[in-house]
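so my prof wants the structure for this chain in the tokens format not the other one, which i didnt know existed until like an hour ago. anyway here's the sequence
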Amino acid sequence: KFENMQRTGSFKIRGAFNKLASLSREEREQGVIACSAGNHAQGVSLSCAMLGIDSKVVMPCTAPSSKVAATADYSAEVILHGNSFNDTISKAHELIELENRIFIPPYDDEKVIAGQGTIGLEILEDLYDVDNVIVPIGGGGLISGIAIALKSINPTINIIGVQAVNVHGMAKSFHEGQFLSHRTTGTIADGCDVSTPGKLTYEIVKELVTDIVVVTEEEIKRGMIDLIQRNKIVTEGAGALASAAILSGKLKGYIENKKTVSLISGGNIDLSRISEITGLNHVH
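here's what i got, hopefully its the right format
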């Protein structure tokens, strides 16, 4: 499922718009703030432009330049701070105290999760007898929404998550049965560079998700290259997690002779990063 073709280039606008649309008039007048490595930032920024809400977004200094530029172009004031998602959270809460803005969470929120869950309903419209749905995981909002939507209609569907081996807090929590964090270093799947899963999303994942696998940086790159070469689809690292897991063979027991949906969650990637991954010279 090509969420890289969605407005803003990722699925994130679904949850952001649903959350913002639920705000009261008084809350909208306060203005909002969000923190994000890029895709939630764009979803909030465009949604605020559509709804006439003033917005600020805190992004890490390491965020891809294309995501920063797009966020600013849509409407939001962008504040660059720190080098990780956790750094942006602390800065956002500092600004909430100073300016009394409404915080728009990237994943750990019922309205955001419900917005992402519309993807699950669309999957069933196109493939009602699907057996498996493979979903990238960062903080867990996407897979939580999809799992709720699909399992409420067909409890037999396997919902399988994928994380990067460098940053897999949700996978670690899922397999060890307790709320944990994990991050050794950054990942090419920057959109899923979330070391600590959401508390709400963890509870949903624990109950409804079938399995979570982790993939290496090389496997993610292979997934991205395969999508470009064979399918003519450009994705960011996070967007290729599901494809990477399938190509790695780690899901063979689930997908062999079964109807499987692989979710491409986003396609916001700098051209320079594509050149680096494919080994091609960047053509200006």
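also thought this was worth mentioning. The chain has a mean pLDDT of 95.
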